[in-house]
Design brief:
Blueprint: E1 4-8, H1 15-23, E2 40-47, E3 50-57, H2 67-81, E4 84-90, H3 97-106, E5 113-118, E6 140-142, H4 151-161
Parallel strand pairs: 1-3, 1-4, 4-5, 5-6
Antiparallel strand pairs: 2-3
Bound molecules: guanosine-5'-diphosphate and magnesium ion (MG).
Residues 15-16, 37, 58 line the site of magnesium ion.
């Protein structure tokens, strides 16, 4: 079967924008209104002649109190359903308490887990991504979903584990 990469993370970190970029086409639902992506949407993707599936996650944004449980639940589901998981963190914000809680969940995963630091639109933020090593998910891959910076390197790394 075609392997699936699930993309998880807090609402508004840039998951759907990154999924669009990795797909090379504008299809995943992206809006300035957070939480617009339906619960889980799966797309067919192709990189270097290899087919895989990209699962975007979202759903309705819960209130602030429920956010941590909501994102942790998305991560649990992704770990069960996918062959690898990509945690997306907003590099312009850094790792929040919620990001740390999700990383803690994902460190127990039986499938490979990768870390993308998105919104790295220029060199200014590249140095800050080093701080994300402390999430314990290995190397943070800097990327800009908006401009495409780093997306090829991220896809190469993803296909090594998928
Ligand atoms: P999601 O809720 O995690 O799927 O986040 P979205 O992909 O919907 O993006 C949320 C907001 O962040 C939107 O306003 C995007 O335009 C913006 N955004 C996403 N990726 C980038 C990026 O690489 N750079 C910048 N500057 N903004 C981004
Ligand atoms: Mg989304």
């Amino acid at each position: 079967a075609t392997p699936t990469l699930a993309v998880v993370g807090r609402p508004n970190v840039g998951k759907s924008t990154l999924v669009n970029r990795l797909l090379g086409r504008r299809e995943a639902v992206v809006q300035d209104v957070p939480g617009v992506t339906r619960d889980r949407v799966v797309y067919d993707a192709l990189w270097n002649g290899r087919r895989f599936k990209l699962m975007d996650t979202g759903g309705w944004e819960p209130d602030a109190a429920g956010l941590q449980a909501f994102v942790a639940q998305q991560a649990e589901t992704a770990m069960r359903m996918a062959d690898a998981v990509l945690l997306v963190v907003d590099a312009s914000v850094g790792a929040t308490a919620t990001d740390q809680a999700v990383a803690r969940v994902l460190r127990r995963a039986d499938v490979p887990v990768m870390l993308a630091a998105t919104k790295v639109d220029d060199d200014r933020l590249t140095s800050d991504t080093a701080e994300l090593w402390r999430l314990g998910l290995g190397e943070p891959h800097p990327v800009s979903g908006l401009h495409g910076r780093g997306s090829g390197d991220l896809l190469d790394a993803v296909l090594e584990v998928l």
